[in-house]
Automatic annotation (TrEMBL):
This protein is involved in the repair of mismatches in DNA. It is required for dam-dependent methyl-directed DNA mismatch repair. May act as a 'molecular matchmaker', a protein that promotes the formation of a stable complex between two or more DNA-binding proteins in an ATP-dependent manner without itself being part of a final effector complex. Keywords: DNA damage, DNA repair. Belongs to the DNA mismatch repair MutL/HexB family. GO terms for cellular component: mismatch repair complex. This is DNA mismatch repair protein MutL. The chain holds residues 8 to 336 of 628 of the full protein. The gene is mutL. One of its GO terms (molecular function) is ATP-dependent DNA damage sensor activity. Residues 207-325 form the DNA mismatch repair protein S5 domain. One of its GO terms (biological process) is mismatch repair.
Amino acid sequence: DTLINQIAAGEVVERPASVVKELVENALDAGARRVDIDLEEGGVRLIRIRDDGAGISPEELPLAISRHATSKIASLDDLEGVTTLGFRGEALPSIASVSRFALSSRRIGEDRGAMLEVDGGRVGEIAPKPHPQGTTVEVRDLFFNVPARRKFLKAERTELGHIEEWLRQLALARPDVELRVSHNGKPTRRWKGEGDLVDMGLSDTRISEALGEEFAKNALRVEHSGADLRLHGWIAQPSYNRASADQQYLYVNGRAVRDRSIAHAVKQAYADVLFHGRQPAYVLFLELDPRRVDVNVHPAKHEVRFRDARLIHDFVYRTLNDALAETRA
Ligand code: ADP
Ligand code: MG
């Protein structure tokens, strides 16, 4: 089984940033309000993610690290309308098969915590361990037992950069959650939680924290609904002259994705009203019935497939075209 998990890890775990992504997404799925992220040596030596979410019962710990055991969907019907970030049940077993791994937790409403260690896929015994409500996952020495993968890891700064970029992407979508990051024992970043925002994603503070005040000052706020679709967020106006292709954030039902068709719609709307040839900078959230989008396209879930891709493309194009045209009028 370790071998199968290691093979799966090839798809899910590319580098420390992918581990951080999977673990923080689990924390968010568990309803965490605060997530602490401690890193050493760009995450290669240590990734420790601690959350204050619902936690895991001692007897459920082995399930959490079992392949395709997910608590998030129970049937194919659920998969059709999945609303959690995770659902494939392969992140923890994959990560645990290529690291020295420890899962500690205390379930909400229970008074005892427990811990389970896995060493390169070898599962230990459940042991009692005091723990506040929530979960801590420790991942040490990533790829220590897969030299071929370890060899491809980049310098500490590069790996840290990938983690920070992913956290920025997350922070933009979840201003309601506090994220605290440390690297080699020093606090490096703190994204303060902004309480229970009804309108998730539309936070002025987070926007300027994440993309800079220049972006926040020059961005046009977008908010439009129609055809059971909602597009909201920000797109930079021509006055913003630092736009580049790496300031393009797109979320579908809260999940950061890459989508050529939507990227094209945004670019086209921008070019038609404002500038030809210039990259638009944006943070856009598309919300739609989860049944209209398939998120199970790739193990890392960077991509989605829409039932009615053409309609969505046109909706995004039209919305942005109208919004931008108005600023010109
Ligand atoms: P998935 O997220 O696709 O369900 P994972 O392998 O990432 O699969 O996690 C397996 C299971 O472990 C989850 O379904 C969940 O029940 C449990 N789990 C993992 N991380 C946490 C966490 N931080 N808090 C509570 N439960 C967790
Ligand atoms: Mg998961």
